[in-house]
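Tokens as discussed.
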């Protein structure tokens, strides 16, 4: 009885310490982020952040790309944050989320994660409604990384993810999103701050794609096709919960999907993909 009571009290004490520690860490980040009024600045840091937006569509391989990016010590992020951006000031929300969610604070050695010294803070945006305003895209601190995936596999995978959608719904989302991505690139209008890559290039031209990422982002550390599995990896609403994202590396084999798409739908999707690809490659840096 005494041993059981002591064990229970010890568990409660550990939980109290954990809650207090987590509260202190979040308050620390909040203070640094809010103490600097400029949207891209935080306290105790001389240089502003660059904000890296992975701009894509559902089932594009964006979860893989965000993991490859966040494995680099100069990039912090974890996937979709679902922030609705009305302006540059909302990037403060992004900093608060990524510094808490993209890192672990379990032991004393994790104290190094309190340093806010990354070059880039990253978010992934797959839906039009997340940008309540697009004006901030013209800011010099904002970088757009555009990821595309060919139509047949994209449509099949979206349909698998959204079984309640009709074929028309799936096509409308895919073609509409491609058109929006072109609009984003036109608003940024700077090849030094925009890069377009395809999922197929990540799989089949990996070395070249990773080298291009490093050159584009100007990171001292190169990118690797291996990455760390994070606490958010595979979490529904954050990224891919169906694929092989927990492998910790690029997996080139793909799961079987049935493609039940009409020829007319596929023709329309291919035309939209071709048009978006050509326009993005004219505007953006590319492989």
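Sequence:
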């Amino acid at each position: 009885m005494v041993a059981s009571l002591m064990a229970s009290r010890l568990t409660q004490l550990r939980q109290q310490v954990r809650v207090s520690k987590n509260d202190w860490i979040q308050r620390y980040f909040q203070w640094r982020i809010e103490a600097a009024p400029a949207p891209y600045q935080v306290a105790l840091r001389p240089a502003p952040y660059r904000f890296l937006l992975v701009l894509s569509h559902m089932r594009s391989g964006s979860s893989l790309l965000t993991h490859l990016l966040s494995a680099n010590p100069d990039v912090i992020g974890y996937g979709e944050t679902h922030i609705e951006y009305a302006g540059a000031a909302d990037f403060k929300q992004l900093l608060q989320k990524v510094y808490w969610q993209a890192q672990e604070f379990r032991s004393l050695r994790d104290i190094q994660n309190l340093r806010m010294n990354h070059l880039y803070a990253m978010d992934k945006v797959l839906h039009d409604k997340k940008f309540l305003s697009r004006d901030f895209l013209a800011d010099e601190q904002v970088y757009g990384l555009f990821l595309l995936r060919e139509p047949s596999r994209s449509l099949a995978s979206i349909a698998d993810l959204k079984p309640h959608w009709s074929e028309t719904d799936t096509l409308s989302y895919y073609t509409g999103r491609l058109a929006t991505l072109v609009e984003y690139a036109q608003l940024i209008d700077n090849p030094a701050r925009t890069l377009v890559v395809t999922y197929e290039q990540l799989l089949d031209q990996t070395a070249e794609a990773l080298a291009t990422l490093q050159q584009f982002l100007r990171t001292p550390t190169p990118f690797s096709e291996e990455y760390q599995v994070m606490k958010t990896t595979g979490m529904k609403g954050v990224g891919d919960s169906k694929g092989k994202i927990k492998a910790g590396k690029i997996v080139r084999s793909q799961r079987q999907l049935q493609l039940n798409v009409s020829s007319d739908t596929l023709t329309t999707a291919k035309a939209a993909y071709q048009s978006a690809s050509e326009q993005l490659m004219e505007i953006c840096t590319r492989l």
